[in-house]
């Protein structure tokens, strides 16, 4: 029987080639998109699930409300004191370490980043495959280092590097172990491990990624409250209880729920996953709608076949089985096309989502996709099969093919849904693109165009002392217009804050983020000075200094908002005022305001941001940056020359150079992915909708060809006939627009609500989407209707 069904299905495909091709192409595109998204979602949703005790490990995170910063770092010494709280089984710390000098091997310099401190128990936290040597030994000796496979090959040309040495400044390291590069489905990112510094009683620095392994069944909320109380008592005694809020993040949720600041590597986006899954489901549904629509529309052609089968004794179940077999076979063929499309588009898709995805057909994932294909085939073919199996043999063979309105209602409903989804996706794609452009063109208070920065320079060589000689040598490079120093990546986040008090009493130990910069700060960074002056070499006391023993002083620039918060009636009133705080050594620190600049935004436009203060020549960060205003046409030559100048001056022969405008664009990388994905899926949705409309228009024109011929005989023009056939479809588009507008307005508005700075939803975007879908529908129907209207009436009516 199955053999008979297959033969019948293949013959049906041959007789109805257009119907078959449209169904295979529509389902193939929908399934290919679903496979790509499923691969991406499967990877993103399984980060760190392979780690030991993954379900019971939580990371400690802090939120500083006064500066609006959520950071995944904490003070390891405080948490070590609190590690005996009920429910905590173990504390693991990955210690953030300064980059330090370059590593030298056989006279060659290498830049090694992401070297972290860890304890020998690190393998209880995450799976690390040791390729050579002894990892535990590497983490117990002060001069031993464990390298990743890629770093070992980069330095020594082999993974068998145990016992070899490398020089970093005055320190000599011995390679004690080599471990495999970490897989991409983990939020951990380091290229080397060394012994972690011992715990101490210093409770203020946030210098470690701290993970707690808790007893199964532990009340996480209660544990968080206990940690919060103990943390405040040790790290911030006597301070406002709202200065910091602790939270615990489940290890397996970090990748999709992580923040934008200080993560080991770029995190994912849960909203992007949900959007992708939703879009892929929509595409499969659109393809399924096409299949159902065209199968029902084709029913008139196959009604006599069903009638004859029934007259010869075929039961309803056999008819259903026949058409379900055709449906599943069509879907399997479409799945083969989908696999071809996936293989062809994977390189492009990997670049889009910044992942390395591969499709293994023999894996559990492959079997899952096969199950989805079979379910799709059965679900899409179920209604057409039941519909055609319900034909009455007597009515069909007597020429009475269809009297009911159910099939018509189903076709119209599905077409309306198709059009509505197309309208919604076009609106979403345009508005998301507008929002992204709005974010990227926001006035941030500084210039990032035409600037580069050299990162990870030891602050002792830039900020602790004023290195004028180095700056002059860099400024002399052809193409460099200006150079200065900054202690943060201004496109990323603040690194430090201080408690400021003003002489007028308006500010009293208020936590304020600060940025350390060098001379001519506002000129270098493009800050808009609205009162006072810039930091200047003409006033040597601007730079951080110690005027008397036990005191510190420096000049400062206030942002406009901070000047208002400090109680100054105008920017001019702030000039000459003093603010007091304490430096990193707890020394009284006096800041003299020499200028006020327009507000600047550091990092992303999401959420509120505290107003910072800019201090001349002061930092508490391990490393700082050289920022240069350059002729971007000469960037390659400048990059090469920097290696020579910095190598001679500070032994940095392989400087890491970043383009500031690229860093700024990277802030919204996840949002850009969503915009691109929605744009691509919108195009695919419109293509699938066109397939469905084209198929249905073909059957509609065939069904009404006698009516068209009679109208032509009576004098109707071609354009009137085209509009007559298109009218039904345009009416459905109008209904779909009425349904899509309010739903889309709500969903897009909800997404825009995540941004502190956002666009308004414009009416013209909605009208554009509706017009585009209506125009595409009319053109698709007109291409069929015009052919029908051009036929000779005599050829159609000669048998009447």
Automatic annotation (TrEMBL):
The name this protein goes by in its record: ABC transporter permease
Species of provenance: Shewanella jiangmenensis
Annotated MacB-like periplasmic core domain residues: 21-229
Keyword Cell cycle: no
Keywords attached to this entry: Cell membrane, Membrane, Transmembrane, Transmembrane helix
Membrane topology, as annotated: Multi-pass membrane protein
TM region(s), chain numbering: 20-41, 272-292, 328-349, 361-393, 414-432, 677-702, 729-748, 763-786
InterPro entries registered for this protein in UniProt: ABC3_permease_C, MacB_PCD, Macrolide_Exporter_MacB
Domain ABC3 transporter permease C-terminal: 279-386, 680-793
Annotated Pfam families: FtsX, MacB_PCD
Broad class of the protein's primary localization: membrane
Species lineage: Bacteria, Pseudomonadati, Pseudomonadota, Gammaproteobacteria, Alteromonadales
Subcellular location: Cell membrane
